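Recall the central idea of this unit: under ordinary conditions, the amino acid sequence of a chain determines the structure it adopts. In this exercise we apply that idea directly, starting from the sequence alone.
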Amino acid sequence: MDAVEVVLRKYDERPHRRTTTRRLGEDEFGTWLGTPRGSIVTYSYGNKRPEATRHAAVRVIPPGRWWCAIFFAEPSTRDVYCDIIAPARWESPAEVTLIDLDLDVIRYRSRGRVELEDEAEFRQNAGLFGYPPEVVAQATAAAQELRAALTANAEPFATRWRRWMQLLSQA
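Accordingly, the structure predicted from this sequence is:
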């Protein structure tokens, strides 16, 4: 499995966080990447130091979509964490840049509760960085789409991700 550097930036291109993942493969939902438990995440904000992940995870990056999703292995309390992003930019086969647009949609394992987070940060940054109206519209639509898909347990949020998690665990 080839290494892929996932680079998250904010809308003004400043670094946000990054991690090295493993390319697991592709399917109709997008490119699947995996991070074993203990993978290092480097943060570029505040005084946050690099830290090791507590759970294995797989991420799907759908082409041309305004989101990506990270699925966590148990016993994580979060089942899936979706970042609202501008469509991913593959800089090379070994690096993808994701522009984080602040909004997150999270499904928790306990009772399948789905929450939209960071709406205030989204509104603040939309004004601060001058998100164009089409970016605001696309980000808002993606958050609504994800909320509905996660609540309905639609694929790839139902079982598809488990195949990729199993592949990661065998690597």
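The domain at 3-170 is CATH 2.40.380.10 (FomD barrel-like fold).
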